[in-house]
Each structure stands twice: as C-alpha cells, then as structure tokens.
Prior knowledge:
Its cofactor is Zn(2+); Mg(2+); Co(2+). The protein is an alpha/beta fold. The protein has helices at 27-38, 52-62, 77-80, 106-121, 135-138, 148-155, 182-188, 191-207, 234-247, 265-268, 279-289, 325-341; strands spanning 16-19, 46-50, 68-71, 85-89, 127-129, 163-167, 172-175, 215-219, 252-257, 273-276, 295-299, 305-308.
Amino acid sequence: MTKATASPLLRPSLPLALTMGEPAGIGGELTLKAWLERRHSNTTPFFAIDDIRRLEVLAAQLGLAVPVKEIAGPEEAAGCFAEALPVLSQKLSDVVISGQVNPANGKAVLGSIERAVELVRAGRAAAVVTNPINKAALYDIGFKHPGHTEYLADLAGISTPSVMMLACAQLRVVPVTIHLSLAQAIKNINQELLTHTIRTTHRALQDDFGIAAPRLAVSGLNPHAGENGSMGREEIELIIPTLELIRKEGLDLIGPLPADTMFHASARKRYDVAICMYHDQALIPIKTLDFDGGVNITLGLPFIRTSPDHGTAFDIAGKGIANPASLLAALDMAAEMAKKTAGKSRHAPKAP
C-alpha cells in the first residue's frame, strides 16, 4: 500500500461510497479501472468499501497500476485520491476465485452495502454507488429481497414500494413493477402503485435532477395501449382513470402511449421520463440505446443511490476486459445529483 499526498485539485468535501459488490464478479475490476479514469480529474472522489488485499491481488493479476491506500474514514478520501485508491477495509471471510461464487463471503458483501448507507445517512459521504451483487450467493445467509433496490429500501426503513429508474444520456425509464414475473406484474399493477410511482418519479426529477416542470410519459400495458379495449381493458379501467386523477395535482402527464412507438428519437423529445408498466418494457429500450452507459437509480430513498446497469458478468470476471463505462456513469450521476441536493432535506414518500 502507498503513502499518498494531498491532491492539489479543488474537490467537494464529501466523497462517494462505492460498495464491494460480488467479489467473484467484475466489480473489483470496475473499481480499479474507475479510479484510473478519475484519479486526475476534478470530479467528486470516491472510496471503496472493500477488502484491501483482494484489490491489490486483483490489480496485480490484471496488470493494472493501481496503488491502494487504507483509510480510517471517508474524510481521508479526497486527500489521497489523486495518488491512490482510497479503501475502507471490509475483509472477506474466504478466498475469491473469479467467476465462482463463494457464499462464505456473503456477509462482507452485505456489510459493505450497510456501511455505505450508514456513512451517507450520517453525512460523511455524499451518495451510495453499488457494484453488482449476486442474489443467489446471498440467500444462504438470509438475504430475502428480490434485489438491491428492495434491500436498500429496507435499510432505509421504507415500507412503500421501491421505485427504480434507469437513465442514460438519451432516455430515463421507470418500471412500475420491477422484479416480478410478467404474470405477477400484471396482477400487481393497481391505482395505488401507479400513483405512488408517478408521484415519486415527479418529485425526484424536481429534487434530484433539477427539472422544475417534469414531463412524464406513461405507457400502456397492452399492445397499442389496448386499442380502445380490443386488446385489453387495463388502459380503460385502470391507467386512464389514474392519470386523470393525478393530472388534477398539476402533473404534466401524457399517455397511456403504445410502448412500441414511444422510444424513437422524436418521441423521446416529448418527455423527461417514461413510466412503463413492467421490467422489460422499460429496460429493453434503454439497454438498446446505451448498453454500456446506463445507470440504475433508486428513487424515494432518504439518500442518493446509483449503480451500473448490468450484473456481475461471471463469464468475463478476472479476464481484464470488463467495461467500466456504466460504473463511471453511475459515479458521475451520483455526484451530479449530490450537487443538486446539497443542503436539501431528503424524505421518503408517504405511503400510497
């Protein structure tokens, strides 16, 4: 480990907290490459909550010239960021073999997330940025959540449904239902959930993205948005009445729109975010537009959280070919959101 000197660059006072993610995946490689990309830029620094030794070994294996410095707290990150990757120690319990899940390390993975949340909520870090986890590797230690998004809501003590946004330069999307089968997603869509999702998204666009008067486009559920009931009645019986009620609150809403015609370039100019009814309806267009640069954002939390829009990629772990573009975008977006919300109080939305 290196002894680092203070950076001459002017940097914000609060750094970003970057979690470990699944150690057998590509998260460690992304962390190392992200530091190489950002070390000399005048951007918000970050620190990793990770096992120092495993990062040093991984850097050597991949041929990445990344010096690592252990820090005692986030306050030390900015001072050494230009010279070394700041790491808050989170020791693993067992060895790491790229591409091979080891459940013994699950507690460290969750511990990294919990510490990041604690530090941000304590005002010692600006935002949580999470590397990808593998849920199956965590079930043996009692993990009971469908994904990262729901787990973070639980850590925040929020009982309202999680709201997930995916964003890139060309598009923002929010699925009303997230990690459910298509059959279950359709059953779960109701007026309360749709209203909660729209209100939470509207507020986040104002508070976190600085859009004073957000324009929200809402998709239909069925092909051609039901085509006046000939292809399904959910639009007529649920979506349209819900949108009419919310419009009375002054929200700028268009829809329900046919999902197959709302994502081309000219259509996207009409709105700031697309509210979609289920997971793939939202994620297919954004991953088609920018597979490497998409960012996952959890809305409605009392803290900022972003993440790369991809998984652990076990098939390429340890090979040195992982693309850090999505993590870099997640770090940049977290920093930008933190600047927009600096000095503002963050509250979870009320239950629908």
